[in-house]
Amino acid sequence: MARAQFQKGQRVWVECVGVWARIEQVQPVWAKGFDEPVRVTYDVGLGREFMAQELAPAVSDPAASDTASSWRMLRARNKWQTAEDCPHHPFPGTYPVVVTDPQDWGGWRVPGAEYDRDPERIEYQARLIATAPRLFALAMAMIESVSDLPEDAPPEMRRLAERARDLTREVTEVPGSAPTTEQVTTPISGRARPLPDAPTESRAPHAA
Asked: What is the pTM of this model?
């Protein structure tokens, strides 16, 4: 007999489409003479039903524990244009790079032609990327502050914290392993027990 691998509201990765979705409906298929469903499918809002083997739960990414305190923006020498060749650049003769390693390795940069096409936009992107870890930490602090005393938080703050939670999950969660068989996890009948990686907090309504 089949048992549900996921529960309503759980965030899952849809492998064949390559997108995240949420379980909108758990749909057991019953057959005459059986006390339990013979099959369970899931509606995730993508136009058809999915089997458990097509979905993967969200799990925490171990890399998300990195505080990313070493992210910073540096200026590199412009090797393709001299300062005299590009007086329209914000900082003629240099371009921004964002490094994410204490030894000034890794990170983000763009090709010279792309920087020259719109240097102000690239400069803005570099500042934003370098600041992202601190903005992420601020969002996590807001989520924790509201979750500690949800009844005392204003409705707008709860709404913002919920949006922040959804956004941070896009950073901290990655697809886990899809179930290979309909193993027993959560009974269809009765009240479903939340899975370890399923969101269990109350969800504040989003503003229209």
From this structure: 0.67
